[in-house]
Amino acid sequence: MPVEYHGSPSQDAAWMWVSGERRTRYPSRMAGMDRKQFVGRVVAERDRLRPLLPDMDPGDLLLIVESLMRPRHFDRRYFVRPLPGGGHVP
Amino acid sequence: MSPDEVFLEKLLEALEKARLEALVVGATAAVMQGAPVLTSDIDILVRDTPSNRRKIDALCAVDVLFDRLAGGLTFESLRSRALRIPIRKQTALVATLEDIIRSKEAAGRPKDQVHLLVLRDTLRVKKALEEKK
């Protein structure tokens, strides 16, 4: 059976992240908020903006729209911290 | 509220207590405006006066810049365009995304180049979102 593929890998990853289908680094991010309604608004804005910004990667666009629309103080992370063994974590 | 926002609120409290007018600049200012980036430090800009330098010494370890940013951006010019963004009970004076981009373009460090890719796109999307309003 053929598999239909409608988006780029980055777009899919961003969608899963926004919609909560993917385990995020901050599982409580959307606690107490209507996640479905928020995701719907983000996707609607992304769809509206796509023709206006045709050169922008759809995954990047979704991530930026989500970040700009997310209510302020909603568990927003600013900093990365170095790990003792190398690398960084938020 | 994330631990990062708690830290920022404490920093703003300390600045207010020290009566130090400071602008949040750099990537932290960009995140405050919704840019999807992370940073390893917080940069604040203050006027370069002996009194301010004394006050800064008493504060916690943050990266303090005096009077100007790369790109010929002065404290006064940045302040005239700055946004007031509430962080819980405190209010941060934050350089605009346009000014942050301008300073990072002028600084031209590798980490600035990486952030610029995201910040320019963020500014374009932000303007497109605002056009609707």
Task: Explain the overall architecture.
The complex is a heterodimer of chains A (90) and B (133). Chain A is mainly α. Chain A has one domain (9-89). Helix content of chain A is 42%, strand content 4%. Chain A contains 3 helices and 2 strands. Chain A has a two-stranded antiparallel sheet. In chain A, strand 1 (81-82) and strand 2 (88-89) form a beta hairpin. The longest helix of chain A has 15 residues, at 35-49. The termini of chain A are far apart. Mean pLDDT of chain A is 73; it is low at 1-9 and 23-28. Chain B has 133 residues and is an alpha/beta fold. Chain B has a single domain, classed as Beta Polymerase, domain 2 (2-Layer Sandwich). Chain B has 6 helices and 7 strands, in the order αβαβαβββαββαα. Chain B has helices spanning 3-17, 26-32, 50-57, 75-81, 97-107, 110-132; strands at residues 22-25, 43-46, 63-66, 68-69, 73-74, 83-87, 90-94. In chain B, the strands form 2 sheets. Chain B has a 5-stranded mixed beta sheet. In chain B, a hairpin with a 3-residue loop joins strand 4 and strand 5 (73-74). Chain B is globular and about 40 Å long. Chain B starts with a helix and ends with a helix. Classes of the chains: A mainly alpha (90), B alpha/beta (133).
